[in-house]
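Lay summary. Proteins are chains of building blocks that fold into shapes, and those shapes determine what they do. In this project we predict the shape from the chain. Here is one chain we studied, written as its sequence of building blocks.
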Amino acid sequence: MLCASLAGRRTSKAAGTHSTAVAGGVLTGMTARTGLRRDASGSGRYIAGGLVLPARFVLVMAAHDRKRSEIMAAKTRAELLAYLDELAVEATTIDHPPLYTVAQSQALRGTIDGGHTKNLFLKDKKGAYFLVTVEEDATVDLKTIHRVIGASGRVSFGSADALMRLLGVEPGSVTVFGLINDVDHQVKLVLDAGLMRHDFVNCHPLTNDATTQIAKDDLLRFLDAIAHPPAILNVTGQ
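And here is the predicted shape, written in a compact code that computers can read:
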């Protein structure tokens, strides 16, 4: 957590003896939005609970607070399905035990027609994010995929924090439906051409304890509605 990472470090030279050991209390005060005010002397500092805080410290806390708000605002499975209903999209959702790997999915989900997906949440060297969705048994060469998807240099997997912040899902639940939470359009979606040959596509509805089947054309309509038009590319060479 942020508080722990800052523990034992001083906020700035101007803060003098004020250690960030008080960060927990300050963060609590900020998130509750009580007791924080700008110093009237024009120093650029803030005052909270009798403590004088440098502006840099307050900005770090505010960023943390905003991140919490973004995460808390992520759509739920119920909200996603309700949105699909608003779009008059026919979708069938089947509950099953949580699935974390393709092998588990194949063993436990039962017989569900259509293309089943594997999703790669990637980041390039310039910090751009990509969601690459392919068939579950497809092979993706991470050493060369950047040339296909238009990334800047080789890609690596995005962090769990970035995944939650941008798509509102946890590792193991990555899904094209997570783009409903990417309101700032920071993630580029790439759909593999091989996957889009199926009439129906199966994806997790933001959690990995269910599978939602949606017609290919309806998936594209959903993506258009949330302003996330995909790039349909031959990612796997199939």
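What the prediction tells us: The mean pLDDT is 80.
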